[in-house]
Design a protein that fits this description.
With 305 residues, this protein is of the alpha+beta class. It contains seven helices and 15 strands. The strands form four sheets. A five-stranded antiparallel beta sheet has the order 4-7-5-6-11, with helices on one face. A hairpin with a 2-residue loop joins strand 14 (242-250) and strand 15 (253-261). Helix 1 crosses helix 6. The chain starts with 11 loop residues before the first strand and ends with a helix.
């Protein structure tokens, strides 16, 4: 529970958020919790039609955060971070996790179980894969949520996936996993982890593009040790402080499908307050670092040895 702080101990959190997320429950709770603690929330909605200056005067933020996939928003976050404003999550971590090719390679390097994965410039190239690896789920390497997902039941179905004629985009194909139509979401804020079960928003009526269905109610479930270890490993693998892990629970074991930065935290009680507490701890820690100075901090650490 956050408690009000003395008014002289205040600051500003910069939140870069796409318009579609402005009404999210967790973000509303986040703003209320910051206000209770005496801190300001500066909300910036990125606009693809605007012109942004690199090297311009940085905003007066103690911490920057970004919610959404807008490239302009990521640019604003990167510019703020380059000016010395700590970011939660860092631009580098966000870019790494949004590239599904780099994401899968990173997960494998950290010993996380993932589906067999291939990538190519054009979906038709997946026709060259051995028929035994089908069915496959195909999606853009930088896709957003459930958008652009297709099912290939056999190699000749590759022609059903739409792609730019110039081949200037990468596509990822993964083995289709049987989850019984249920997704497991692991949500992380620092080392605090929650597990949520929800119906899958994707349905396949046959080969070709997926059908997006209305999301059913999410259910908070008990977190066990294996879930917690999986979530912590994924967050640390990418250097993410705010993250979500999509897990496929199959008859043959659990596999990580995706890791996302700054998820919705649906069905997580008090998510906004938890976000605010973590953001304030981080901002205060960086403020302390700046006030002490690197040399002084090193001497304090050496003196504690």
């Amino acid at each position: 529970m956050l408690t009000p702080t003395p008014r002289e101990e205040t600051g500003t959190i910069g939140l870069i958020v796409e318009r579609r997320h402005l009404e999210a429950r967790a973000l509303a709770e986040f703003g209320d919790a910051l206000a209770m603690a005496g801190w300001r929330l500066d909300v910036v909605v990125p606009d693809a039609e605007s012109v942004y200056g690199i090297g311009a005067d940085p905003p007066p933020w103690d911490l920057a955060m970004s919610r959404g996939r807008d490239l302009a928003g990521l640019g604003i976050l990167a510019t703020a971070a380059a000016a010395g404003i700590p970011a939660l999550n860092s631009p580098a971590a966000i870019e790494l996790v949004r590239n599904k090719i780099a994401m899968n390679a990173t997960l494998l390097r950290h010993g996380v179980a993932v589906p067999a994965t291939w990538f190519a410039h054009h979906p038709r190239l997946f026709e060259r894969l051995d028929g035994s690896v089908f069915p496959l789920v195909v999606k853009p390497f930088d896709g957003d949520g459930s958008m652009g997902i297709s099912l290939l039941e056999r190699p000749q179905d590759a022609g059903l996936v739409s792609a730019p004629a110039d081949g200037r985009r990468l596509f990822v194909a993964q083995t289709l996993l049987d989850t019984g139509g249920v997704d497991l979401k692991l949500y992380g804020i620092g080392r605090d982890i929650w597990a949520v079960r929800k119906p899958s928003p994707v349905a396949f009526d046959g080969p070709g593009p997926a059908r997006i269905v209305a999301a059913g109610p999410s259910e908070l479930i008990e977190l066990d040790g294996a879930m917690r270890e999986m979530a912590i490993t994924c967050g640390q693998a990418f250097g993410l402080e705010l993250f979500g892990v999509d897990v496929a629970v199959t008859p043959h074991g659990s596999m990580v499908i995706e890791v996302n930065d700054f998820p919705t935290y649906s069905a997580v009680p008090g998510a906004g307050e938890a976000l605010a507490a973590h953001a304030l701890r981080t901002a205060r820690l960086h403020r302390f670092y700046r006030s002490v100075g690197k040399d002084r901090l090193r001497s304090l650490v050496r003196g504690a040895d």
